[in-house]
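Minutes, project check-in

Agenda point 3 was the complex the collaborators sent over. CS summarized: two entities, 204 residues total, and the question is how they sit relative to each other. Sequences were read into the notes so everyone works from the same version.
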Amino acid sequence: MKIEILGMGCPKCKKLYENAQAAVKELNVQAEIVKVEDIQKIIDYGLMSTPAIAIDGEIKAAGRIPAPDEIKKWIPVK
Amino acid sequence: MAKECLCQANEIVVFSCSGGSNCGQIANDVAVRLTEEGIGMLFCLAGIGAHVPGMIESARSAKRIVAIDGCSVACAKKTIEHAGLNVTDYIDITKEGIAKNKDFKLSQQDILFIVKRAKQELARER
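CS then shared the predicted structure for the full assembly.
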């Protein structure tokens, strides 16, 4: 599973990255968490606001910082 | 492209029907002007209609969603609602006394009037 944190690297993006890390740790799942700071990639997702989080290529939230508990709901647990 | 942070709060997002009539194009001009004046941010209605998740989620995080329709067919409002979003502020230009026609030489007076009406709507507490 790939989790992308999309944003230009401001404190809000960093906080979302930390929340994603916490969610993955709490669920004890294997996931690659990557920061995407390339504006073209962000625009290609159709995003008009950041930070945003995508899981396996699907945008789950944008323009806000979901808490770890909310992110956990989007992570498939096998 | 310059490295510009998109983490500003899009508290007010604006959608216009941008339809094929004077009123539809007035709606588009009004949305552009509201954006240029820093009152709201023009968003892409086609992206919402196409159910682009990035666009929908970006709009969902806004505090207010403004829809400006040219006429009572209400395409902008219906498109937004179809994507599961709620319109908080709404203007139907024909209900503001501007007749719908196919004359695309838009009246600046009409545009300014609808800009003013949009500002009045946004001045109301939600």
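Noted in discussion: The radius of gyration of chain A is 11 Å.
Follow-up: revisit at the next meeting once the mutant set is ready.
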